[in-house]
Write a structure and sequence with these properties.
The chain has a domain of 81 residues. 72% of the residues lie in helices and 15% in strands. It has four helices and six strands; from the N terminus they run E-H-H-E-E-E-E-E-H-H. Helix 1 crosses helix 2.
């Protein structure tokens, strides 16, 4: 695992106890010796979590004793001690108990995961069946809409045909009613 300059400097500062400026210089001067030591701590550590915390990117979090090392893309990003504001003995006890609890929960997660995976698979099949039903209903709906459009076109044709016959009746009635005698009667009615 590669050790970033930041991780090397933090190792010197937080694990070896150097002040920040001294830590940078010490790491730079002793990089060849320190990188294998830092890498070994990570390799002998245990992966406790993979994920992101706040603005810190997703990483693999390794712990070895009380030393935590976030790693990503084959590199150790930083190094720090798990500290909770107590003396070393109590900090170590808290760290140890937290690691035990994480291991217990990981086992439970794995056990539950197998059971849940079966339920997830079954629910996914149910979703697929419902999706299939939805597709069939949509297909039927589409056919019904096409059928309705056809019936509406036929209705318009029927109405147009009916209107055409009514127009023929109106034209013939006009010819019949608007004869010479009808016009003379209308003129007589106007005169008075």
């Amino acid at each position: 695992m590669n050790v970033t300059c930041h991780a090397g400097t933090r190792y010197c500062q937080r694990i070896l106890g150097f002040e920040e400026k001294e830590a940078k210089k010490y790491y730079k001067d002793n990089k060849e010796e320190l990188d294998p030591k830092i890498s070994k701590i990570q390799e002998e550590g245990e992966l406790i979590f993979t994920g992101a915390f706040g603005e810190f990117p997703e990483c693999d979090y390794y712990i070895n004793g009380d030393i935590v090392m976030p790693c990503r893309d084959g590199a150790i990003l930083t190094v720090y001690r798990a500290e909770y504001g107590f003396d070393d003995k109590l900090n170590d006890k808290i760290t140890s108990e937290l690691v035990k609890e994480i291991k217990r929960l990981k086992k439970r997660y794995q056990k539950e995961g197998e059971r849940i995976a079966k339920r997830v698979e079954r629910r996914q099949r149910d979703i697929d069946l419902v999706d299939s039903d939805i597709a069939n209903v949509e297909k039927n709906l589409s056919r019904l809409k096409e059928k309705k459009e056809l019936i509406e076109r036929q209705l318009q044709l029927d109405k147009a045909q009916q209107d055409s016959i009514l127009d023929d009746i109106r034209n013939l009635a006009y010819k019949l009613c608007y004869s010479v005698n009808f016009r003379m009667e209308m003129l007589a009615m106007r005169r008075g």
